[in-house]
Specification:
This protein is an alpha+beta fold. It has one domain (2-111). Helix content is 34%, strand content 25%. It has 3 helices and 6 strands; from the N terminus they run ββββααββα. The chain has helices at residues 46-58, 70-78, 95-111, and strands at 2-6, 14-18, 22-27, 33-38, 80-82, 88-91. Strands 4-3-6-5 form a 4-stranded antiparallel β-sheet. A hairpin with a 7-residue loop joins β1 (2-6) and β2 (14-18). α2 (70-78) runs antiparallel to α3. The radius of gyration is 14 Å and the shape is globular. The model has no long low-confidence stretch (mean pLDDT 90).
Length: 114
């Protein structure tokens, strides 16, 4: 099996990875796309997994215990991020990371009394 994500159009394209990996496609402001397959295999803690995914998707360094904002959980759930300066990022979370996002969202709702 494989996991994939479509790149923004233009230029289009697709990142195709193994099922346990996270495919990411970044379309730069000049219209060129870069595709990556990231492997979360050695991470098991929910917060660490989500911070790992955020670092891979945004290409911004994070620590395993960085604070995770609601906006970040939202775009992780959507599978896309449009950066302020025009970069368009699409991705597909593997099951282990999607589960971690759901767990953190639930903790946030519980701590807010929702």
């Amino acid at each position: 099996m494989s996991r994939s994500c479509k790149c923004s159009d233009p230029p289009g394209g697709e990142a195709i990875c193994e099922d346990h990996q996270m495919p990411v496609c970044i379309v730069d402001t000049d219209g060129k796309s870069r595709q990556y397959c990231y492997d979360p295999e050695y991470r098991t803690d929910s917060e660490e997994l989500v911070n790992w995914a955020l670092q891979m998707i945004t290409e911004v360094p994070r620590t395993p215990d960085s604070f995770i904002y609601d906006e970040e959980l939202y775009f992780l759930a959507q599978g896309k991020l449009d950066k302020d300066y025009g970069e368009k990022i699409t991705f597909s979370l593997p099951p282990i990371v999607r589960k971690a996002v759901d767990e953190i969202r639930q903790k946030g709702m519980m701590s807010q009394g929702v």
